[in-house]
Amino acid sequence: MSGLRQITKPLGLIEATPPEAVLRGAAPRLLRRVPPERRPIELVHNAYGIAGGVVFGTLPRPVRRRPWAGPTYGLLIWASERGPPPERAARVGDRSLFGLSAG
User: Fold this and answer.
1) Neighbour tally for 21: CB within 10 Å
2) What percent of the chain has pLDDT over 70?
């Protein structure tokens, strides 16, 4: 997923990675005080991923074991995200990979 972000952001397909967008929306005043190089982007990203994995882990085992369960879960996460259509489209692969790894 990090590799996809390294490609999609420089190409201009996404303006901000999901953790950056979360930090901008959730704590804009706090962020103004923190220099960009010290912002906890990776911490937020990892916490988001861990929380997503924990939620996936609460699904019944027969559901989790289906080959389609992980990718479907990743796409459901993608569907809940906001942003301009090109940016959301660029995240399809990212969220599908998340689902595969969670599955």
Assistant:
1) 17
2) 79
